[in-house]
Amino acid sequence: MNRIKKGDEVYVVAGRDKGQRGKVTKIELAKKRAYVKGINMVTKHKRGNPQQGIEGGRLQQEAPIDLSNLMLWDPVAKAPSRVGIRVLEDGKKVRYYKKSNEVVSYTHSS
């Protein structure tokens, strides 16, 4: 079971955007990287094509950030927290915050 999923609020613990929070928009499990809204922004230069009506210029977009540089944000403790996996009585696996011992509740917007 993956500890960080799409839609989770995360805290950046290392890198240029250290200390910032954002929502995960996309996960690349094979590369162990995630896209976080408003975090790790880079400038891409795009060539325009006037015949097709495509305008060129410099575009700001999110670059992927390594999962090891992210921690889940615990709203109860109001701090970043490690995540554990717990098996409930009915056999269902759930994630929980190790700092506050609360189950991770999330709403995915697919």
Main beta sheet: 6 strands, antiparallel
Low-confidence stretches: none
The N- to C-terminal Cα distance equals 18 Å
Mean pLDDT level: 90
Write a structural description.
By secondary structure, the chain is mainly beta. The chain has a single domain, classed as Roll (SH3 type barrels). Helix content is 0%, strand content 44%. It has no helices and ten strands. It has strands spanning 9-12, 21-28, 33-36, 41-46, 57-62, 65-66, 70-74, 79-81, 83-87, 93-97. Strands 6-3-2-1-7-8 form a six-stranded antiparallel β-sheet, with no helix packed on it. The protein is elongated, with a radius of gyration of 17 Å.
Ordered list of secondary-structure elements with their pairings:
Blueprint: E1 9-12, E2 21-28, E3 33-36, E4 41-46, E5 57-62, E6 65-66, E7 70-74, E8 79-81, E9 83-87, E10 93-97
Antiparallel strand pairs: 1-2, 1-7, 2-3, 3-6, 4-5, 7-8, 9-10
Supply the key terms.
SH3 type barrels, mainly beta, two-stranded antiparallel ribbon, elongated, 6-stranded antiparallel β-sheet, 110 residues
What is the gist of this entry?
With 110 residues, the protein is mainly β. The protein has strands spanning 9-12, 21-28, 33-36, 41-46, 57-62, 65-66, 70-74, 79-81, 83-87, 93-97. The chain has a single domain (9-45, 57-97), classed as SH3 type barrels, CATH 2.30.30.30.
